[in-house]
Design goal:
homodimer, 357 residues, alpha/beta, Rossmann fold, 14 helices, DNA-binding
DNA sequence: TTATTTTTGAGTAACGTACATCATTTCCGA
DNA sequence: TCGGAAATGATGTACGTTACTCAAAAATAA
């Protein structure tokens, strides 16, 4: 019943052929299958010394556990929950869509994705949503976090319940999250400055539009942007930012007012949402040549404005990448597997009219 | 032995619980397991009508074949070969490295990658390498193709032997390749023009450096670049391209000569390799302010030049993405599975000093 | 109708792992 | 040196699929 030292017969254990299995490890370590299994799934009842022998055997053979078979046997399914912000924000919409699309393809790999919407900018609500997650029906959570104490606490409780958790687009640095998936917003701001600085050769002022000074990403983008402009483009100066509350009407009104008050504006940087307001303000602007404009997030509107030549560049983070990366990382965390880092880096994408996807 | 209509007992067939299996499909279609299997792996010996009934049952149940289990049973391993160009080209180096890194991680999923080097710019050699591929030990091939008749023919023979084949960075449009994985080089050239056009506000000429007028990607990039410059930046004119043969010394010499002959150069676009030559030519240039420079491929040297402020932007295609995408697509082709398109689009990346990875 | 081919059913052993049970061996302290 | 606890072995079943055999049934040809 057991295969002998069989040679190159189709199925034999051909020492060099198929990759090693648990049985090979058992044989190599001189223990039984059961013991290898105990070590592999660190179950109790195996002596330290034996465990080391098994480990050494795995090392020697280059054993790699077959995750597909393991998961098949475990009939494990990775049940992941995405907590996204509700509201009209275009980018959040894109995230939601990316979750859905990814979900339909992931079901092949026994990955079940679920996205839940949480009222935006509402720490207690987010904390409540986190607390409502039941370890019996979910294995991992990705959350678009706000950096507030109650949220951090809730994430701590979640982790304590044995659920792996990572932050998605907006980080909460001192929480129990095991990773952050998203871009470095300081870098994004610096990149915008590098573009706009070069796009604006004549001395003058830059209009800066942000959503809210309370949003961490916006603050970071502004920081990166203003630092680079000040250091590398001394012929430009940033005006005090307009707080547009990510609302097109507010942005249009305030920006128009700034055009009237400040004749020396030579460029526009918008680091939040509400970009339709910029288009309107520019249309209503009296005379003058067109202004270089750099904005964030490649929404359908931003895309249209790029194509129309109203925007010059869009700084983007790829929602699809972020979701897929979050899924892969969560699965790896759940399995206790390492991740393939170069694949998981989310890059700060620059889109212009010509390289639109 | 067979489970009855058992209700919510842990393992029962809970009509709504676990996803449907072949047994469920068989029951639903009123046929046996064997028949479902015959349909699934389109084996002969099943009537048209029966096949349709099974198909309908799968539809109704939303059956999705468990690829992990299937592959486990088949003990299939995806054996893929990458044919890359040998030589000193930095980008090819990066491709090779990406194959190796991906290989080490893919072995977990029973994917075995192998890369083979072929003399560059040598159609017959590439054709020979393609012909040397044995269907008994490889399932799919990704090739950095040159667009030559003998290569196209060899790809046809490869496909005829039942090996799935796709082109990798450089396409061969009318061949038997099932897909092309790479960027649109016309788009890449247009993107470079959009950047350089904006970086050069003053009227003048653009020095253009290409590797060879025989390389398809280079020709396409040049086409895209010159079209956009002519149409959208009339204050700029492209000089006749320098053919640097992807060689730093040649590039340095020819570009220095052009600096001497042409005083009105306001920007540089290099669409091939040999970018170290540009740095040298710029260093040796007499006086004058610094020139905007846009190049292709984020090699270590290009990266250094970006950081030093010598280059302004680099147009890049992510070698890692390309390799991983090729692997995923080949596996999908082999399995006869659909691919997840949004994930497989290779984008034209723009890197500046501030958004370097 | 019979003979023959084609289609279908039923069953079984894999694939590599997980997990449970029970028997057996080894260890350690009294 | 014994008793009990801890460690290990042996074995079986399951996961969802593939792939095979052999027999039974159904369709088709004669």
């Amino acid at each position: 019943m057991d295969q002998g030292e069989g040679a190159a017969r189709g199925r034999g254990p051909d020492p060099g052929a198929g990759r090693p299995t648990v049985r090979d490890v058992a044989r190599e370590a001189g223990v039984s299958l059961a013991t290898v299994d105990r070590v592999l799934n660190d179950r109790p009842g195996v002596r330290e010394a034996t465990a080391r022998r098994v480990g050494a055997a795995m090392e020697r053979l280059g054993y790699q556990r077959d995750m597909a078979a393991a998961n098949l046997s475990k009939r494990r399914s990775y049940r992941l929950v995405f907590l996204l912000a509700a509201g009209t924000n275009s980018f959040m919409h894109m995230l939601r869509e990316a979750v859905e699309k990814t979900a339909s393809f992931s079901s092949m790999d026994r990955i079940a994705l679920q996205s839940r919407l949480v009222p935006p900018f509402d720490g207690p609500a987010l904390a409540a949503a986190l607390d409502a997650i039941d370890p019996r029906d979910t294995d991992g959570v990705a959350v678009v976090a706000t950096d507030e104490p109650e949220v951090r606490d809730a994430m701590g409780r979640l982790a304590a319940r044995g659920i792996r958790v990572l932050t998605l687009v907006s980080d909460a640095p001192n929480s129990a999250r095991e990773r952050f998936v998203g871009i470095d917003n300081v870098v994004a701001g610096r990149t915008a400055a590098g573009l706009l600085g070069r796009f604006c050769p004549a001395p003058g002022r830059i209009a800066v539009i942000m959503g809210s000074a309370l949003l961490r990403d916006h603050v970071e983008r502004r920081l990166g942007f203003e630092t680079v402009i000040a250091r590398e483009y001394p012929h430009l100066a940033c005006l005090p930012p307009i707080e547009g509350r990510d609302d097109a009407d507010t942005v249009a009104r305030e920006l128009s007012a700034q055009f009237a008050a400040e004749p020396g504006i030579v460029g526009i940087y918008s680091l939040g949402a509400g970009n339709r307001g910029i288009v309107r303000a520019l249309e209503g602007r009296p005379g003058g040549r067109r202004l270089p404009v750099v904005v964030h997030e490649l929404t359908p509107h931003a895309r249209g404005a790029l194509m129309a030549g109203v925007f010059d560049a869009v700084i983007n983070q790829d929602a699809g990448h972020e979701i897929r990366s979050a899924v892969r990382i969560l699965c790896a965390l759940i399995d206790g597997r390492p991740t393939f880092e170069p694949q998981e880096r989310i890059s700060v994408d620059i889109f212009m009219r010509d390289n639109l996807p």
